[in-house]
Amino acid sequence: MLLQLKPSSTTPLVAQIVDGVRTLIADGELRPGTKLPSIRQFAQVHGVSVFTVVEAYDRLVAVGLLVSRPHSGFFVKRRQVGGADAGGIERVAGADFDAKWYLSRIFEHRHLNMKVGCGWLPGDWLFEDGLRKALRAMAAEEGELGGYGDPKGFRPLRQLICESMVERQVQVWPEHVLLTQGSSQGLDLALRRLVRAGDPVLVDDPGYSNLLFSLRYQGAQLLGVPRLPRGYDLVTLERLIIEHKPKVFFTQPRLHSPTGSVAPLAHLHRVLQLAEAHDLIIVENDIYADLDPEPRPSLASLDELHRVITVGSYSKTISPNLRVGYLMAHPDMVEDLAQLKMVSGLTSSELGERLTHGALTEGRWRKHLKSLRERLAAAHELTAGRLVDLGFELFSEPKAGMFLWARHPALPDTVALSNQAAEQDIMLGPGHLFTCDLTPNNPWLRFNVAFSLEDRLYSFLREQLKR
């Protein structure tokens, strides 16, 4: 397959690739079931970047023209051609609701006002007062504000993290802690340290969308471990480990995104048993721990950072603008990850880390967390009730954290629904964005309960159900 791409054209290369493949499919030159070149092969033959091909293939999967098969590649999807079906393809394709959209436009604050599908809290739910007080205190201090700071991060904050972990039954010292520019950098550092192109990697399915995108870009073979309302499909997890011999499992046991589910203690023990038996490293995404009112054990607390790397963040509870997160691991692993951090961006911002330390120690942090958890619990109750009243099925009811995962039998096309919502200034989170294969016919939606309190959302959903 060879496309005639024009780098000098005003049409982006990604769009040229998508349009070119769509034309080949429509003309019958790419028949259903045909395997496309691998991402790297396509990039090499056409002289474009791997990232460009990843975006194009993701978009073609999202609009239903291709299907991604783990360990095999990308294939032309078998589907009915012509008539209403072809019209449906064109309508969805024009909407641009793919991984690229989610990773870029979701951060454009002026794009859609009602961000029902987003992954953060409204500004007035965050610790803005504490942050302002910390900012004033830091401005009044005398001392150096220049320089790069410690590559591992501001040591007083690392020490404070160690002290806070005692309540979570994790015994760590500053040598176990690496500060990062948000949890995304922490996950990225772990990914680049542990994963090579072609490696089989275990992930939650559905799972954390940014991580899944990063793993695809790295060239990993994603092995989806189905999430259940109460934890993991342990039978499938063990089978995937035995069949594919992966070395890493990226997972989010607590207040999981997008489903909100929580893995029980017995499941955590079994995951660690399998990790020990099959020499598996676990990267635990625990960024919502501060939103959890229950003192639950974590993989890190049970494993004592022997096989577990855990990632946390203050962006969800203080302010996303801070971009301050942390990674905890065995000191030898922290040394390796600190080197990677320096290679990619030298140090993280000590100013941001000092501000975070000030906000955490100014005296009202615990009160803020208590209030935030109560507010989220109330939002869960309201959102769950209104969705159920409309006939939605809830995957689980965590009553904590940010998310509810729901579907409606009369609204199976969540891509089309999201397009229609966008026209009314509402951003939804269609389910395919959180899956390993990006197949667009996923009926689930992620609802951020903090952004799901306005009547306008339910009026929109009610109107769609009438149609």
Short descriptors:
globular; single chain; 467 residues; Aspartate Aminotransferase, domain 2; 14 strands; 44% helix; alpha/beta; Aspartate Aminotransferase, domain 1; 3 domains; Arc Repressor Mutant, subunit A; 4-stranded antiparallel sheet
List the helices and strands and how they pair.
Blueprint lengths: L12 H14 L12 H8 L3 H13 L3 E4 L3 E4 L6 H13 L3 H6 L23 H13 L14 H11 L11 E4 L1 H13 L5 E6 L3 H10 L2 E8 L2 E2 L1 H11 L3 E4 L13 H13 L3 E5 L13 H5 L4 E6 L11 E4 L2 H15 L4 H12 L3 H25 L3 E2 L8 E5 L6 H10 L5 E2 L13 E5 L6 H12 L1
Helix pairs in contact: 1-3, 2-3, 6-14, 8-9, 8-13, 10-11
Description:
The chain is α/β, with parallel strands linked by helices and 467 residues long. It has three domains: 13-93, Winged helix-like DNA-binding domain superfamily/Winged helix DNA-binding domain (Arc Repressor Mutant, subunit A); 104-119 and 367-466, Aspartate Aminotransferase, domain 1; 143-361, 3-Layer(aba) Sandwich (Aspartate Aminotransferase, domain 2), CATH 3.40.640. It has 17 helices and 14 strands. It has helices spanning 13-26, 39-46, 50-62, 83-95, 99-104, 128-140, 155-165, 182-194, 209-218, 234-244, 265-277, 299-303, 331-345, 350-361, 365-389, 414-423, 455-466, and strands spanning 66-69, 73-76, 177-180, 200-205, 221-228, 231-232, 248-251, 281-285, 308-313, 325-328, 393-394, 403-407, 429-430, 444-448. Helix 2 (39-46) packs across helix 3 and helix 8 runs parallel beside helix 9 (209-218). The relative contact order is 0.14. The model is unreliable at 80-97 and 101-110 (pLDDT under 50).
